Amino acid sequence: MTDSEGLARLRHIGWRDDALPDDPRRLARVVAQHRAGYEVHDGTAAFNAQPAGQFLKRGLDPALRPAVGDFVLLSHASHPVIEAVLSRRSTLTRAAAGERYERQVIAANIDYVLVLTGLDGDFNPSRIERYLTLVEGSGARPVVLLSKADTGVDVEAAVSSLRARLPAEAEVHAINGKDPATVGLLAPYLGPGMSAVLVGSSGAGKSTLTNTLLGEEKMATGAVRDHDSRGRHTTTHRALLSLPTGGCLIDTPGMRELKLTGEENLDLFADIEALAAQCRFADCGHGKEPGCAIQAALASGELSPQRWRNFLKLHEEREEQAATMEARLRRKAGPKPGGKPRRGGWSHDDD
Ligand SMILES: Nc1nc2c(ncn2[C@@H]2O[C@H](COP(=O)(O)OP(=O)(O)OP(=O)(O)O)[C@@H](O)[C@H]2O)c(=O)[nH]1
Ligand SMILES: [Zn+2]
């Protein structure tokens, strides 16, 4: 295999450097993680690989283990073993219950997270906001895609109300997932060397858009899929899709249903945090307390009730999840020797 052939092969899996790694035959990309091991793709085919023993050690920071999107070096054995994980340019993480409160990598080396929402009944600005908080700080960039713009809905109104809520730099596009012209619109995010994931709730149009991007009918869409055949197409070869635009789309069920956990930061609501800091009392409950800056902002219209509700909802969810995780960790740790209950630290008592 010549160098240029080797490079062309690696481009299919999103390898972006102009140089080949020292031993390109050993390079592959993790496209899925199963109970029984990993599924990797080397640009020609997808196959299974096991993690080397070093990745299985108890107590190892989960962030050091191979994750979907990682470029890895394999052994030459007939049953390939993942021996090393190359350094990451971006890391999407979420909180995970482990031996301590820690973060789990859900995808690595992703450039764009395409957050897809239908402009039909699925349209939900709060959910979009929450997806953006998940992507924040990952090194990947979110792109909000509003599908079904062709269905007679008031696209302008939806887009402008959404823009008003999101940070100014957020990218928002209304699209028709069935229209081949959409490929051109999204090409800047899906060019050679780019890796993207598509997230969004069921029915938002992920399969439809993926098919349009592929330029052929490769996946079953909701229109033709009956209830029982759900998941039938979740086969190995479509976990990493090489797009005609040169980029690649990582599409595994876990990625599709990115869930929010207790650890997203709430930077999108920094304005609300700033307001709360102006309340007269440091422990203000933002109810009937005198001198409450939040209530004042709500009264003056500076803060919309909807935005305040969203903040409260997200905040509450976050607290709940953090408490659940703490409780789980505490159960795992067992009672402290000496029998005396531990003081402080835990805000919830669950036994
Ligand atoms: N008119 C129109 N219909 C769309 C568009 N995008 C998706 N649809 C339709 O919406 C339905 C659901 O689309 P899918 O692509 O199956 O949705 P999905 O996100 O893959 O759904 P899951 O596989 O359940 O996660 C199908 O009937 C599509 O034809 C669009 O931009 N315009
Ligand atoms: Zn207050």
UniProtKB/TrEMBL annotation:
One of its GO terms (molecular function) is metal ion binding. Its cofactor is Zn(2+). It is found in: Cytoplasm. This is Small ribosomal subunit biogenesis GTPase RsgA. NCBIfam families: ribosome small subunit-dependent GTPase A. Belongs to the TRAFAC class YlqF/YawG GTPase family. RsgA subfamily. The lineage of its organism: Bacteria, Pseudomonadati, Pseudomonadota, Gammaproteobacteria, Lysobacterales. HAMAP family: GTPase_RsgA (MF_01820). Residues 99-258 form the CP-type G domain. It comes from Luteibacter yeojuensis.
